[in-house]
Amino acid sequence: MLVLYSATVFLSAFLIFLVQPMIGKMILPLVGGAPAAWNSCLFFFQALMLAGYGYAHFSLRRLGLYRQALTHLLLMVGALILLPISFDRAATVPEDPSLWLIVRLFKSAGLPFFVLTALSPLLQFWFSRTGHQKADNPYFLFAASNLGSFAALLLYPTLVEPSFDLAVQAKIWSGGFALLIVMLVACRLTVKSETADTAEIESTDQAPSYETMLKWLVAALFPSALLLAATQFITADISPVPLLWIIPLAIYLLTYVMAFSTWNLAPAHIKKLFFAAVMVFPVAYYKLNTNLWVAAPLHLAILFTISLYCHTYLARNRPSVRHLTLFYANISLGGAVGSLLISFIAPLLFTSSAEYPILIILSCYLTRHFTLAEAADKTEERPDESLVLTVIMGTYAAAMFAAIESIGFAKFLQHNAHNIGINPEIGFLRTTVLFLIEKQNSCKTLAMILVTILPLLTLRKLPRINLAMFTMVCLVLTTIWQTGNAPIKLCSMRNFFGIKDVRLSIEDQMVSLIYGSTVHGRQSLNLESMFDPLDYYHRNGPVGSAFRQLFSHKPDLKAGILGLGIGSLLAYSKPGNEFTFYEIDPQVIKIANNTDYFSYLATFKGRSRIVCGDGRRMIEKSQEAYYDMIFLDAFSSDSIPVHLMTLEAMRMYFSRLKPDGVIVINIANRYLDLKPMLAALANQLSLYGLYSLDRVFDQNDPGNFGRSVTEYVVLTESLQVATELKKCEYIDWQNLRNNIAAGKVWTDSYSSLYSLLQPFRR
Length: 762
Description:
The protein has helices at residues 2-27, 36-82, 98-117, 119-127, 141-163, 166-189, 198-201, 210-235, 242-259, 267-287, 292-316, 324-349, 355-363, 366-369, 387-406, 409-419, 427-438, 440-458, 467-485, 542-551, 586-593, 600-603, 615-619, 647-655, 675-685, 719-726, 736-739, and strands at 488-495, 498-505, 510-515, 518-524, 558-562, 578-583, 608-612, 627-632, 657-666, 688-694, 710-716, 734-735. By secondary structure, it is of the alpha/beta class. The two termini are 56 Å apart.
């Protein structure tokens, strides 16, 4: 019996967590690969989990165990008939797809997911009515549930996603669902009906108080909200793909496993970890954009410690088995509210990711009102907090951040070595200087962490610090310092697709569009260079080379451009040219059209048109063999919309190109090297591929004003075009297929970032 129930709970949890990344991957192309799509999915999952737990709680009391079990089995059979799960890729997507996406998820996957979420509390309740010797404490089945969840999260990115396309994945999942129904019937047959009537369910056992249930809800809310906030904060700079969704979700789940197990950490150790995590949060928050590979693990560690604290509180305050379903319903309600706050409320209230630090500050109050102490220790007097010490420590941390960020470690070492008469250009000092130059960002981040946690290791009075006040002081002072050293913010917008800032640099006399943490276009305020293409589109860079070598004498040039930015590419247009921009984010269109910030679109108005929508879906509607060039630059921050780079997408692009047309792809990225995947595409489609890394140029040369390091790939079916481009004297175009080892081709059903990640790319 134990094996049967454990296997059934394991399979139900396995299916729940296997379908989540699968559905997320299915819906990403519908919304242009926006990172916020996963948050909408998580809200959908949390909402249905709430519905499932609520249904389990109330149906047992209204229907009794016999009728409830029959009802649930019929619902599962009905859900099986609706499988496999699929989504219509031809559906029309509104400008703000948040609510539209939730509705689509409910229509396509609502019933199957709903009936699965109710199974964990139902099976635990059924087991408590079997008469087994362990029936009085069915919480041990929670371990089997978590094991199934972990197995799904581990196997999806490592086995399922690389081995099967989405259609096959959906069929495999449907088969698992059918097997679960059979196992569920077997479990139902073990229940002793004489112990399962409504009267026993509604026993005289005292129900939890409203205060207790509210604390359950809050303790579940914070980890859920932090899961979404941290995931969105990290994936905005890489790519919204299952691999990067699963890691935070697995950490979140791990804390549940630990909290409800016998091998959890001691409460005192959990509290110390909580203090340390909150104190290093400012470092993680401000250093993510410059050093992802050090800062991202900090964000995951913070998620782990705060979630472990909250889930340990839940485990230590769980009720008797008679109120098991009520307990789970409150937990799921907290999770759903947390998802709602981050997915829908925060974008309406903030134009930045302010909800993330606010959550951290509010979570500091958990240690005051949600104690992990044993019952005998709960009356222990809490030491008074020192406001003065708190402000001093917060100021100290902010001052150290500013000092470390301002210091060049290598120059500092060289200068002091010269002062004491030592030559820093030889021996160990030279090696150290070179290391500090190469790993400067990592060294700064680690130094910030050290100076932050040092007081935790040395000052006994640290537990008397008000954590919320410390974090607030540190964040506010650091923000003030950064604001004073950053360009002036003229405008800030946020929607489903991301955060956009318009900034003015007085020193450089430039206005910039910042998408997430990446510059997506700059325009000079100097009249002589106001309409020059800058940054990744500079005339002396790869883009200028392509236009000069291939299109300088083409009076009727037609270009399809996926990604508007600020319209910088219009600087290459001439009378009679047609530049069509495909932009999915209406706020980007609004910013680019605002002449208070940028004027490319207004100046070259007769040569351009803008189509709002996903670039791939919109350009597919254009006529075949229409464009001379298709330009791919539709990234938000450094995040890659994978569906724009698949085999099917490339075939469609080339069908819209003329025989001598080219696809120009901006692959500049801090964390991913796309060349192996594009080399594989070139091999698969028998294309001529060229690439250029433009990073060696004289920055003091006035002709390179506004020029940035960038990297491009050009794909074409014409050998003549490829040969002509290689004739460029000032840009080194190299053969992609000859010099780059091909990776695995991305398709609409398969994509993987494993081999493309560059942890130490600077």
